Request: fold
Amino acid sequence: MKIGHAVPPAAAPLSWRDLCHGVSGLFSPDRAIQRLEDEIRQHFGVRHVFLVSSGTAALTLTLKALRSSCQRTEVAIPAYTCFSVPAAVLKAGLRPTLCDIDPSTFDFDHALLEHTLNGNTLCVIAHHLFGIPSDIDRIRALCQARGIVVVEDAAQAMGAESQGRSLGTIGDVGIFSLGRGKNITCGSGGIIVSNSDQMAEAIGQQYRRLAVPRLFEALKGFAQVALMAAFVRPRLYWIPAAMPFLKLGQTIFPKDVKLKRLSGMNAGTLHNWRHHLMRSNRVRSETATDFSQRLSLALTQGAAHPYLRLPIFVTTPEEKKRLYLLSQKRGLGLSLGYPTPVNEIPEIRIAFDGQRFPAARSVAETLLTIPTHEWLSETDKRAIAKCVETAAGALHARDAWREAS
Reply:
C-alpha cells in the first residue's frame, strides 16, 4: 500500500455539515426518520418506504415478509452477485437457487432463468450490479404468470435509471443500500420501497417487530461515521487500508445479519441526500466516460450512466492478480470484485454440490473494477489508466466476453 496517498475502491463522501445534521437526528430521531421517509416517497414516486439498518437487512426483511405469506421456499438469484444476497436468503429461512449470468450485463442469462424457476419459487432477486440495469420488465413478464415476486436489488444503483424509470421501483419491491461505498451513505442503512399495498402490509408486520437502535448504539454509529468521513479521503485512506484486521476491500460472507430500524442519527446525516445523490451520480457518469475514452472501453449503458464502479475484464486470473497487486502498490483503488460465484462461497458451497455456472466463474476469475467516486483526482485517473494499460486485453465486460468466447 502506498504511504501518504491511497484511493479507496469505493466511497461516498460526507461533509462536516452532514455530521452536524446527524447530531440533530440523535436528539430528534422521529422527526429525522419521518422527513427522510417522506422525501424518499416523493423522490421515487412510491407509496411505501421502510428504513432499516443496512441494505442486507432491507433484503432480509423483505424476504421474511414474503415467506410469512406464502408456502414457497426457493429464491432465484444470480450465480454471481454480492455475498450478502445469499446470506439474506438464508437468514430469512429460505433456499437460494442459482441461475448463470450474462457477463455483458451481469443480469440473468434469460435463456436459463425460465428453467431455474419452478412451483416452489417464491421470488426472483434481480440485481443491478455496479449500477448496470438488469432487464426487470423481461423478468417480471416471466414471473407474473407463475405468481413469483420480483425483488429488485438496487443496492448499487440508487438514483440510476433505465428507460426513464428509477431502478429499484420497477419490480414488485425494491431495496437500496446506504453503506459506505454506495451512491450515497450515512455509514450504514437500507431502504425498502414498494407501490404494492399487499407487499407493504406484509413488510410492515415484520418492520414493527424491529428494535429501535438505543442511544449508545447511535453514538457508536456516529463515531464510526465521523471516522469514515475523515479517513475515506485519499490522503488518509492509506492508514486504515494498512490495518489488516479492518479487512477493507475484502469480500466476506456475513454469517449473521442484524435487523434493526435505521437510527435517527443515520437519518439525520442524510439531510441533504438528494443533492449528494445527484452530485455523486453525475461525477460517476463523468468519470466512467473519462476512463472509457482513456482506455477505449465500450460502455454498455452509454456515457450518461452512473457506474458505482467501472467493470473491466482481463484475459487471465494471473493477469488479474498482477494488475491488482500493482494497483495496491501504487494506491490506485482497483477492486477484485467478488472472488467466487455463489456456489463456491466456502461457507455455503455444500448446498450447491455438483452445480456449475461457467459464466459466473469466468467473471469471478477475470473481473476487476475501477473506482468512479468523486475523490479521484486527475492525477489518480492518469495513474489508473496507465496501470490498466499495462494489461494487454483489459476491456469492458461486454467486449472481453465476446473475445474470450
About this structure: The radius of gyration is 20 Å. The chain has 15 helices and 14 strands. Residues 396-405 have pLDDT under 50 and may be disordered. The first helix runs from residue 16 to 27.
